[in-house]
Amino acid sequence: MDNPALATIQMPGRTGASRPAMPASGREPDLPHMRLKLNSEFPSSSHLGEGVKRQSAADSPIEGLQFLGEHMKLLDDIIELLSDKNGSLTDAMLKTKVLMHKIGHKELAEWVNDELNGYPNGKDVPSYRIIPARLLGDVANAAWRHSKFTLPIAHLSEKQRKHFTERDLRESIHVLEEFSKKPNGHLSYAIQPEFYGAIGEVLDGGWIERAWVQIEITQVMNSLIEVRSRLLDFVLGLQDELGDVQEENMKEAAKHIDADGLFSRSVFGNNTTIQIGSYNTQKVHISVTKGDFDSLSRELTKHGVAPADVSALQEAIGQDDGAIEHNQSNVGPAVKGWMATMLQKAIDTSWQIELNVAAGLLTEALKAYYF
């Protein structure tokens, strides 16, 4: 040590961080960079307005410096986990769930919950969770027996072939992550014996003793990479939109950005596909590309919007060109008027669609087109 009068002490709560201790002379060591940070970020109580209370985490200068570093790190933590191929995707998802609540968009956490808990039966899975599979079985006859035999499916119907060669990955992210660590592993799903007869019709005297659908580890790894990449796109985009904001101010800052649109584009792509409506009512899927009126027109027409109404929307979009509402990620007044007219048509049944589905369809389709 250059100056024997200086020792080192650990900063509270920080592993490996240190600062010079008070020298024997009793004077504080010269740390102008630290003094400037403390003075600018944590003013003394004499400089605070009357009635303003110092934050408890910053009661001492060193603790205040630590507080500043930790207070803005949620987004950075998520980005670090996602950008590291060995970072825990489960941990990143859990932190993202916290993030959704902090920005006041906990409704966006539905996708995160499905990824964390697994997708329940009856709920559509994203395209990256629909995985090619192989139909295998143990086959025998009076003279021979073959294990892990690739079973023929060409004689089956298209629906049956799809059932045996595609599989929805409904397992939780944690289960898939643990599975992906097994270099020679695979996922298998048993086939019910009642299907053996139809599958084995062309086995020429043979029969199926056991059958299963098998997914290889590389396919699961590709699915995990998709999740990691899409979530990283969203978090990076959100960081750019929010700027350098403290976490307690995230909710207010997020009011001025289109977090829903950013999430949809990042996770599901610009060619947005969104499910609207509950599983107990009508299901609607939309696919609209940002700025492409033809894709918007096709989707609206597909869901029963009359050509005259589509033309009226195109005219309204033109009237709203440059509307200030677009800066707040809202549609302009002409388009709002068009939407009100269409919802009235849904109410009086001149547009044959359920009202709740109509509202969701128009909102999400226009959001995908604009933002």
What are the defining features of this structure?
4-stranded antiparallel beta sheet; 371 residues; disordered N terminus
Task: Write out the strand line-up for the largest beta sheet, numbering strands in chain order.
Answer: 5-4-8-7
Cα-based radius of gyration, to the nearest Å: 29 Å
Net shape: flat
Secondary structure class reads alpha+beta
Low-confidence stretches: 1-71, 271-283
How many separate domains make up the residues? Answer: 2
List SSEs in N-to-C order: EEHHHHHEEEHEHEHEHHHEEHHHH
Mean pLDDT: 75
With helices defined by DSSP (H or I, 4 residues minimum), what is the helix count? Answer: 15
Task: Record the SSE blueprint.
Elements: E1 8-10, E2 18-20, H1 32-41, H2 61-71, H3 74-83, H4 89-102, H5 109-117, E3 130-132, E4 134-140, E5 145-150, H6 158-165, E6 166-168, H7 173-180, E7 186-190, H8 196-199, E8 207-216, H9 217-242, H10 250-254, H11 259-268, E9 272-276, E10 284-288, H12 293-302, H13 307-319, H14 333-347, H15 355-370
Helix pairs in contact: 3-4, 3-9, 4-5, 7-9, 9-11, 12-15, 13-14, 14-15
Q: What can you see in these coordinates?
A:
This protein folds into two domains: 90-250, no CATH class; 270-370, no CATH class. It is 46% helix and 13% strand. The strands form four sheets. Strands 5-4-8-7 form a four-stranded antiparallel beta sheet. With 371 residues, it is of the alpha+beta class. The protein is flat.
